[in-house]
Amino acid sequence: MALEQQLTETLTQAIKGKDARTADVVRMIKSRLGERRTAKGFSGTVDDALVLDVIGVYRKQLQKALVEFEKVGERGAAHAAQLRFELEFCDRYLPKGMTRRRCARSSASASTPSRSPTPSRWAGWSATS
After folding, report:
1. Which tens digits make up the pLDDT trace of 14-24?
2. What is the C-alpha radius of gyration for the chain, rounded to an integer number of angstroms?
3. How many angstroms from the chain centroid is the CA of residue 81?
4. Which among 8, 20, 56, 117 counts the fewest CB atoms within 10 Å?
C-alpha cells in the first residue's frame, strides 16, 4: 500500500476514534505534501520517496522546535510533549536507519522554500509570552 494512502487511512481511523493528536499530525503531513505537490517546478508524481522526504523534513523541523520548547522549561512542557508524540509518529514511517544527517540532506534538497522550524500552529507562541 502506498504511504500516501496509509496516511489517509490513518487519518480516517484517527477521526473515527476521536484521536485528535494523531489526526493533527497526519493533517500537517498531508498539508506539507500538498504544498510540495503544488510547488512551482514540481512535475512529478507523489510516490513513497516524496512522502518519506516530506516526513523527514517535517521531523527535522520538529526536532529543532522541541529544543526551543525544552529550553523554556515547564511553560513549554505541553508543547514539547506534543512534539515528542509527533516525532514518534514520524519515526513509524521513516526507515529505521534514518539518521540526522539524512534528515538534513532531505531538508536541504526540499523543493519548497525553507519554513520556520516551529510548526505553524505554534508560530505565535514565544518564550517571553
Report:
1. 999 999 999 99
2. 15
3. 15
4. 20
Please give the Cα distance from 100 to 122 (Å, whole number). Answer: 23
Vertex 111, ends 107 and 117: CA angle to 5°?
Answer: 40
CA distance 126 to 38: 30
Q: What's residue 46's pLDDT?
A: 82
Long-range Cβ contact pairs of 5-8 (< 8 A, separation 24 or more):
6/93, 7/33, 7/51
**For 9-60, how does the pLDDT look when each residue is reduced to its tens digit (9 = 90+)?**
999 999 999 999 999 999 999 999 999 988 888 887 888 889 999 999 999 9
Q: Which three three-digit cell numbers place residue 128?
A: 517571553
Cα gap 119→57, rounded to integer Å: 12
What is the model's pTM?
0.70
Task: List Cβ neighbours of 22 (8 Å cut-off, separation of 6 or more).
Answer: 10, 11, 14, 89
